[in-house]
Structures are given as structure tokens and as C-alpha cells.
Amino acid sequence: MKRTLAIAALAGSLLAAPVFAKDPILIGVPVGLSGANSVVAPSVVQAAELAVDQINAKGGVLGRPLKLVVADDASGAVGAQKAFDSLVFQKNVNVLISMETSAARNAGLPIVAKGKIPYIYTSFYEGHACSPYLYVDAWVPEQQVPPVVDYLKDKGAKTYFLIGSDYAFGRGMLGFARKYIDKTGGKVVGEEYLPMDGTDWTPIISKLKASGADALITSTAGGAPNVTLTKQLRNSGVTIPYANLAVDEGTAKSMGKDAAGILISASYITGIDSKANKDFMAALKKKFGDKTRTPNDLSVPQYEGVYLYAKAVEKAGTTDTRPVLKALGEVSFTGPRGTISMNKQHHAPLTMYLGQVQDDGSVKVVKSFKNVDPGAQCPKL
Amino acid sequence: MMAPPHSKESRQMTLLLDIITTAAILFIIATGLLTIFGVLKIINFAHGAWLTVGAYCAVAVGDLGWNPWAALPVAFVTGAALGGLTERFIVRPLYARPLDAILATWGLGIIIGQLITLGFGRDVQFTKALLPGTADVFGTSYSVYRLFALAAAIAIGLGFSWLMEGTRLGLSARAVIMNEALARALGLDTRRIRWVTFMIGCGLAALAGTLLTPLTSVDPNMGVAWLVGSFMLVMVAGQSFAALALACLLLGGAQVIVSTYVSPILGGITVAVLAAVVLRISPKGFSRV
Predict the structure, then answer these.
(1) What is the CATH number of the domain that holds A91?
(2) Which of A293, B151, B187, B262 has the most CB atoms around its CB within 10 Å?
(3) pTM
């Protein structure tokens, strides 16, 4: 599976590229082709392939073509160690650009530090991962949570109930939400977690109903727990405003009526009305046809990450780590999500979109928040 | 916005309903496993996979545009048919080697999971809600579907009692449970009884999978989360449906109470811990009930 995908990725980028005299610049993409991330990983690989194709079609970077080397990190720490090891020390890639779980990122970082190459992390996460080699072009809680809470507050919510899966991301997001709610004068009347493989949310839902909360904010693990919780909430007749910090547009769409009314907060929604986004969607469709995976808040940062790296190498005039790392904090790229620059302590200010799932499953942008600051993620960098 | 916090009576009513319906759902999930364990004395570790098969029957029925309720008979028949093949080709040679049977059925579960992944993809699937909304139970609004699950559990329990107590097959099955050698000596076709029992067990598991779809995500791994709980309950219950009902009520009830008053995270391990304690004190569990 992973080998064929890697070969397909390779073949794809080679076929489309013009003939280059010089060695390619190798981009390592460790990603969860198996395990929890396997649902989203194909869209991430497609986004990276598209960026590489487009850049190569325009002559590559410093006269050299870009080439992807995809490796499966199995969505976890053990797989990530193998994938990073092989990419950094055997394939000798010039950079790592990838969307991964926090466990995989944390396991890979020491290997990146040992190999001394840049690493662009393209997944939203719980924040505060700092390394001189690491840049992040996706959102952190400081960017995602405030739009949701501010909106609910405007709608009159004073008391909140928080429900999550018991893991770093779930607790990190809701921990931040609680702080932000307290700071803005709201009150959290309940905060409950279920283990990641938990299936029965009933007692928590009963507590939620008894609490009389004005609004509900959830942050479960993606996929199954999210769907299970939403179904059981709807079955129990919970109708208070419901913001879901962990649901992506695609899942919300396919949940159909159960998802109607859910508020989501993201830096990318397919409905963004800009030329860059429309061009991107058209190019994706042209390249992959009916195999196109719907672009999302994890795949688009991957696309932009490849471009940001290309810009940084061009600016530095070399692929050497030190100058590229410096340039990564200075360059910007205008992509589907707008103009992205990782200039805030290795993180990027982002325009955030608050969407609401409609009865027909589409996501309507209710409000957008321009250039939301990531806050002090890494004060020491 | 929601009504003011519920009254104390209403909270107690909700807790009571949570306990009863949780027990009902656990009962529905575990019956298929108990049927096979009770008569054949083997643990069918592919049970989680049969649950998943049943849930995907609901997906298929939805894709075909049929009435969502049609998924119930479709799942039972599909589960029973596949169970029949499994018994014939995989389980039958392993009756004398129960440990190997665990290994074989566990492996089979993995294979079924992978086949489902190949056929439907890894993504979460969606099915039509069977009974949406809430109903008023003595002044407490409660999920209609969970109330339906309670009715379904009672129907399955009664249906099975009738099958065991009121039919020829049940009589033969009970004879096999009590003394298989004697039953065979008396001319009962024990091989056929085993086969039919295994089919019914797998059919019930698939039926349970369909009944779960409105409550849970449908994905290739969904069955695994339910397998461990059912296994614990069946170990405590032994071979009796009444004991299973009691085990579901006590252990499921404890799970709800711990989740409500202590922590849902501890609630998640309540069934496993209590099952271990019960078996430590009374190695036969509740089977004498």
C-alpha cells in the first residue's frame, strides 16, 4: 500500500516535470497512510503532489525539480520514528513537510534535530511545539477557539458545557476554551471526557441536559468518536448551539441531518470565495479527476507548505539548512487560505472562518476573522 | 436555549433510564456471543467483526435505497449465512481445541475487517436514523431510539427463551449443552445442532450491529470496541440468558453510576473490573441464576 502510493507519487511528479539537468530537491512527506489519519492522508498527498507539479512546470526551484518521498508513519510515534529515520538518514531528503498526529510529530522532532533539516508541520494542533527546525503553517487553539466562543457569546450564551475525547489534543483544546470562556466572562458548567475508544456518551449527555448549559463545545478525536457523540446528542434531543472543534467539513457534510446547525471553525473551507482557492480546486480536479479527494483544513496547509518551502529556498539561494530556516520565517505565499507567512515565532497568523452546517450538509461561512494571531507559541525562538 | 436545570426527580428518572437502556444495549450486543459460547463452548472472537458486518448491511440497504428497517432481516440473514460458512470451514475442525478456535476466530475477525475496508473504504459510513427524536417518559424527555433498544432487547430475550424452551431445536441444543456424548448416543444430529447454533449466533451479532448504527459511528473497526465488553459479560453470565440479563443490568448499571457520579473515564473500565472481581469471588459468575 504505502510503497505503491510512494511510487505513484514519484511517478506522478516525474512524468509531469520538464527535463532538469540538476539533481532534484527531495521533500520528505511522513504521513499517516495507515492508522487514524488514513482517512485524510490521501488528500494531503494529493495536495503535495499538485504543488510539486505546479512548481516543476514553472522550472522548479533554483533550476532543480522538486521530488516527493512519501513514507507511512502509521499515524503514531513508533511508525513516525521509522519513517523519519528512513527519510532523513537513508533517503537524505532536504526538508520534511507534512501533516501528522501530535504523537508522530513529537517522536519525529528529535530525529529532525539530529539530521539538522527544516521541518514544516502542516496540521493544526494543540500548540507550543518549539524547535529551531520546526515551522508550522496551520492553526493552534489561540486561533481556532476565540471565534467560536465570541460568536456563541454574541448569540447570548453565558454558560458552556465542554465534552471531549481523553487525549492531548482533546484536553488541550478544551483546556484553552475553558480559559478563554473564563476570561471573556462566561462560565463553564461542566467538562467531561470519554476514553478515545469509548462508545457510550449517554451519562455525559444526561449531565449536559441536567446542567442547563446555553451552549456546547466538543473536541473529540476525529472520525468515529465525533460521529458517535453527534448521533447520540441528536438522539437525545440536544438542541442548544453546538460548536464542534474537531469536525472537518467533509465529515460534517456526510453526517447529513445530524450535523445540521453545528458550528465549525477552520482556516480553510472549500467555499472560500477567492481566485486562489478556485484555481486550486480546478487544478486539483484537473490532475486527479474523479479520484480527487475533497481539499480540507489539513491538505491545503500541506499545499501551501510546499510553496512556502520553495519560496524560502529561492530566497536563500540554497537548500542549506541554516539560511533556509531563516528565510522560512520571512517569505509569504498567497494560496487558497489567503496570504500565509510563518513569521510569528515559527507560526502563522491566519484568517479563520466560522462555518455553520446547513440542512443540506453544505457549510455556510457565518463570519470570517482576518489574520488571527497565533499568540506567543514559542517565545524563546 | 435549554430549559432551567432539571428537577431532582427528573435527574433520577434519567439515571434510571440510562441504566436500563445501557443494560439493554449491552444485552443486545452480547446475545450472539453467549449463544455460541453456551452451546458450542467456544469463544467467537470474530463477534466484533459480525457486529461490523451487520452495521454495513445497514449501509448497503441505505445505498440500495430500501427502507432502513429492512436492514434488520438483511443483517440477520447475511450474518447467519456467513456464520454457516465459517462454522463449516473454520470452526468445525476446532471444537476439540478451544484455544485454537479463539486464535482462528480472532484472525477471521481481522480478515473480515480488512475485506470491509477493501469494499467500503476506511471512512466512517452513514446510515439513516431509524427513530430520531425524544419522547416524554414521566416528565423526562428521553431518546426514542434508546427506548426502542430496550424493547428490542426484551424481544430478543423472549424470542430466545421461546426458541430454547419451546422448540425442538432448543430442546436438542439444551441436550447438547448438558451432555453432548449422551445427546449423540440418543440419535441427535449434534453436528447439525452446532451448525445451526453458530448461524443463529452470528445472525444475532449482525442484527445487533444494525441496531447499533443509530448510536455509533460505522467504520471497519467499530466492532472491536464492543467485543471486550461483551466478552466480559458472557464470561460472567456463563450459559444462561437470564444470567446475561442480570450481568448487563448490574455491570452496565455500575458503569452508568460510576460515569455519572465519578468519571466517565473510570466508567469505561467498570465492566471489565467488576467482571474480574465477580469471577474471582465466584468462578462460575452468575450462571447459577
Answers:
(1) 3.40.50.2300
(2) A293
(3) 0.80
Burial of B74 (0-12, 13-18, 19+ CB in 10 A): buried
Q: Examine the domain organization and report whether A315 and A366 are in the same domain.
A: no
Total domains present in chain A:
2
Residues A231, A361, single domain; the answer is: yes
**Contact between B144 and A235 using a beta-carbon 8 Å cutoff:** yes
Are A185 and A77 in a shared domain? no
Split at pLDDT 50, 70, 90, the class of B4 is very low
- CB-based contact A223 B217, cutoff 8 Å: yes
Domain check: are A297 and A366 in the same one?
no
C-alpha span between A74 and A224 (Å, rounded): 18
In a shared domain, residues A115 and A163? no
* Structural domain that includes position B46: 18-97+138-220
Q: Which domain holds residue A34?
A: 2-139+272-348
What's the whole-number mean pLDDT along residues A251-280?
A: 88
List Cβ neighbours of B143 (8 Å cut-off, separation of 6 or more).
A232, A235, A236, A237, B21, B133, B134
8 Å CB contact of B264 and A224: no
Q: What is the ipTM of this complex?
A: 0.79
pLDDT band, very low/low/confident/very high, at B2 (cuts 50, 70, 90):
very low
Q: Do both A222 and A359 map to the same domain? A: yes
User: CB of B238 within 8 Å of any CB in chain A?
Assistant: no
**Residue B83 included in any domain:** yes
Establish if B271 belongs to a structural domain: no
What are the tens digits of pLDDT across the range B66-106? Answer: 998 999 999 999 999 999 999 999 999 998 888 899 999 99
Domain membership of residue B200 (yes or no) is: yes
User: Distance (Å, rounded) from C-alpha B86 to C-alpha B92?
Assistant: 8
Interchain proximity B143–A236, CB inside 8 Å: yes
CB pairs under 8 A between A and B: 120
Q: Which residue of B has its CA nearest to A35?
A: B122
**Degrees, nearest 5: CA angle B2-B4-B7:** 125
Burial class of residue B13, CB neighbours in 10 A (0-12, 13-18, 19+): middle
Per-residue confidence (pLDDT) for residue A7, from 0 to 100: 53
B residues 48-77 near A, CB within 8 Å? Answer: none
Write the pLDDT tens digit of every residue in A185-235.
999 999 999 987 788 899 999 999 999 999 999 998 877 788 889 989 988
CA distance A255 to chain B (A): 6
Question: What confidence tens digit (pLDDT) does each residue in A128-139 have?
Answer: 999 999 999 999
Put simply, the answer to whether B18 touches A193 (Cβ < 8 Å) is: no
